[in-house]
Amino acid sequence: MKNLLFTLLLSILIVPLFLNAQTTDTIKAKDLFGDLKARHIGPALMSGRINDMETHPTNPRIIYAGTAGGGVWKSNDSGTTFNSIFDEYCQSIGAVAVDPNEPDNVIYVGTGETWTRNSVSIGDGLYKTTDGGSTWNKIGFEKSERIANIIINPKNSKEIYLAVLGALWSDSDERGVYKTIDGGATWEKVLYINPKTGCADLAIDPSNPNILYASMWEFRRTAWSFESGGENSALYKSVDAGKTWNKIHNGFPKGKLGRLAIAVAPSDPNVLYTVIEAEKDNRKGLYRSDDAGKNWKQLNNDFGITVRPFYFSRLVVDPKNPDVIVKGGLTGSISRDGGKTFKDLGNMHSDIHDIAFAINDSDILYAGTDGGVYRSWNGGTTMEIVENLPLSQFYHVSVDNEEPYNIYGGLQDNGSWYGPSRSSGGIKAKDWKSIGGGDGFRVYKHPTKSIIYSEMQGAANVWRYDVDKKLIKTIQPLPKKGDPKLRFNWNAPIAISNFKPDRIYIGSQFLHKSENMGDTWKIISPDLSTNDKAKQEQENSGGLSIDNSGAENHTTIFTIAESPIDENIIWVGTDDGNVQVTTNGGKSWVNTSTDISGLPKNTWVYHIEASSHDKATAHAVFEGHTTGDMKPYTYKTMDYGKTWTNIITEDVIGFVRNIQEDYENPNLLFLGTEFGLYITLDGGNSWSKFTNNMPSAAIHFIDLHKKTNDLVIATHGRGIIIIDDISPLREITPEMMKEKVHFLNSKPTIMVDQGGFSGNFGSETQFVGANPTRAAQIKYFLPKRHTFGKMTLEIQDLEGNKITTLSPGKSKGINIVNWPYSIKQPKAAKGKTFSFGSFTSPRVKAGKYKAILTKSKETYEHEFEVVYDERTGLSKSDRELKYNTTMEMYDMTQELAYMVYELDAIYEETKDDNKKIAADLKELKETLVITTGDNYVGSAEPQLREKMADLYSKIAGSYDKPSDAELDNLVVIEDRFNKAKKDFEKLKKKAKVDDLELKTFDEFINE
Amino acid sequence: MKTLKLLLLTLIIGFSFNANAQTADEIIENYFENTGGIDNWEKVEGIKMYAKINQNGMEIPLEITQLKGGKQMTVINFQGKEIKQGVFDGETLWGINFMTQKAEKNDKETTDNMKLEKNDFPDPFLNYKAKNYSVELLGKETIDGAETFKLKLVKEPITVDGKKEENISYYYFDTENFVPIVVHSEIRSGQFKGQVSEAKMSDYQEVDGIYFPYSLTQGIKGQGGQPINIDKIELNPKIDDSAFTFPEETETTTPAEETKK
Question: Which of A62, A235, A862, A926 is the most exposed place for a label (fewest CB within 10 A)?
Fold first, then answer.
């Protein structure tokens, strides 16, 4: 007891000391990101891989899609559109299950994709919601890595079976079939074979929930091979709710088995189907049992049934007809004769992983593919794509220097693309352009020419595309006399020189350099990999079904970084753990990663970031997930790799694939992990997860746009995500965090004149990516959220005249307030209808302005600048003419408004006693404003107010100076207004209403 | 040593006690206490807010009125013309059509859902048990950089496109002063159905002894929102009932009556 007390005491006393010591050189950023928000731009036109499709048991409008890297999406409109409901958690999904007894509230999500291709991500457990998806709780299985099925007893929601496929790259005993009888509080492992064999598929007899079928699969992947099948793969049945299990192999092929699917026909539970991966080709394929698994009969071994079992072993039976069965596959296959014959499903993206029939009408079905979700209304004959699932799985991203800049990247099974960072009306599917086929990886724009480089898997093609001339050629290095076989990674690295625009680098096991855009190549290194022959036998990869797609190519270069400071310094990282550096343009190389503290040998070098602050400095990211090592590794060197220092803290969860250094603040770093984005403000002493609209998606690559300071993030499952202008993060220091309000700097804002037409037709059910703002931004830092008392923000000119008021942000940390550099719209005369032109808010003059923030009676000032858009080509005098004419009409509009106000008041005063004057006033008013009609096609003939407003809006809204036509028209309006003013003055005198109390002009305008 | 033990014991117990001290009811109690006291809240008969929104440089003045019993309306002032929106007299929900400037009724489902909110004035948490609402404390969450208690509020089920749905919203109460600073709820109908709406509240200020947020920002979670700034709040305003009544224009006679004529 004494000891315990002492320890407790010690921990209480020591912990605060320790914390203090820590905080001296760390800046915890977690709560400070405030208004910095992630902006999703998709695209959704090629969508991304789907793992699991689920329906709601009673409501046909509700459909769920569990995706490979983009979380869980829910449709409320029978699959027309979907919304993400799982942003904050692991985005790699194995299975989604809806509680049949409480389907609106209770949903389970098993994380970890189960189609175990080379690029597959990992899960981190089982989640449950009891409120329809608003809040989720993890209920275990942290080490399960991938969950294949969740089956809830339809008669007892507390009883749940879980199929855990488990770890792909390593042994693990957290796999097999688990059961809970208390709704997930406690679990019992009811079927387990060995650390290499997991449950790939699980089915229940809906009429007798004590009967279960489990397909157990022996499998293993390494970075250089894949093995499906073994003595332990088998199909099991339990008739006692999981207590005992027996193999049901009567009629099965002899020898080793691979991945099996199992399906029970819901309308006749004695009918079972399985698809079998076997040793002999002629014994592979579809098997059926009509006696609940006692006997099996082989029915079909067509290509569509046997293709790539690790990727496509999924069978789905029509809920209403035991003889209608769908099989996942390259195209997907459907049988309507109980599995004897199949035809392909209708045209859609290839690689179909799951199918769900609508609950009430089997003509309607939903297919999950490598390119998103498809719907069919005619039993699978024609398929249409869901257009609002931005699940694109990028491997890489780069940007160019256009305005707006473009974003380039390659995607898993979806080629390479580029699209704009902004587009009129939002970034739509039609804004993206294809720039390469196959699986896409690195894509780069030539720094000065209208040329784009892209590639497909294993550098089988490296394209050079002349965008203007529309000319394509391939430029990948080829072996010349005396060269060994070139080994290119599946995701082969390409780099563009920072110094010579025509220079590019490509890595095989050698570093290749070209000075003429890929026409001639020179090898400038020895084999930089370990050249371990044991890791080069890809033609034997696959296990029972050979699978030599090139995806397992190993002992290759994976990342190339030319120093932004010195072109002779080049860093190269290999997939087998070497960090090689040359400081003489390739004449000699040093392997610097032979002894890095805390880093297992041969850990994949995923990215090297050569510093732009110091040429001896670099950051290297390592990741060992293909050996089952899920730890984050990131190191920094400041001496060309002689020594490496760990910069990862325990804040970081998930293995790391990329790091991006800020160009200005060397302590500001961005880390892309398998579970999202982390940011450090203190060079890696502490890391904070960025969660403002940023899902926990796997990040494969990050780029920072030099001019806009936009952080452009390639996610593998949620498309491209941008954090616009990260520059406020550069300024955060412990000192400023103590101030009550601290204004952050911003560059002078260009008042952009460019516009465009958005053409929104057809985008109603499409994903449309958000645009960045063009407004001037007032940025400030608050040490604490403002909740009590008034806080206001006013814009003034330098003389202190009020220009406008804005709504200030109140969040702790960074606040960003947008000002569209305009003053409020003029007050318009009251008529029967609206004068739409007067809704225009005119822009201010270029120049310096002050933001005045008032908080708790104290005021804080900040000066900032807005400038004209030089691209428009207007001279100073053009700008002056435009501004002065606009403001002349602005004032005129308000003058007319006041005149109509006066007129109405006098009319009211005179209408009973002085009918003649009243009638004259009424007549005058009818020429000033519209007094009849409506705001649509019932509108009346426009009067002075409308004509004035239309011209005002035309001039204020144009990029140009007022034209002669506009100025001539202004004369007409002025004349008419002057005449009206005179007429009104006369009537006013005649009316003799001197006693009438009226608001002054200023009172009227500012009321 | 004894004292030390005692001290430690209090530390440990005190700590765990603190962690569990707050129940949902205590948070709600604290909220009403800190914003004027439950008695004052119960006396509120009506609220009228004078506010402005600013949309891309365009400033739009609004007057929002809510009365006990559910009567409410928003009056937008455009170029001197008053456009009523979301007017509810307890039975009929209506608004002015911008094109014709004539009153039109909302659909029955929206109106029926609005009727369910009649008992929400002036605050859904006020005597929530009597309304058969349920409240649950889900834990603490940091939002806008402030530590909050996340409370789940379940009200009467609403009907959406012909189907009954639970009416759930999540309130985030600042742990420091127990006022709600953010409300989340799922958008139930329209183009954004299925997304989460977010309302942020700040600038709490006193009006006749009760604190109200003078700044509201409404939008879709994660995408920023539209700020509404309140210039003035008037409690218990005098408003003629007729202001809420739908101005009938169409013939409402039945076909049978038609033939009689």
Answer: A926
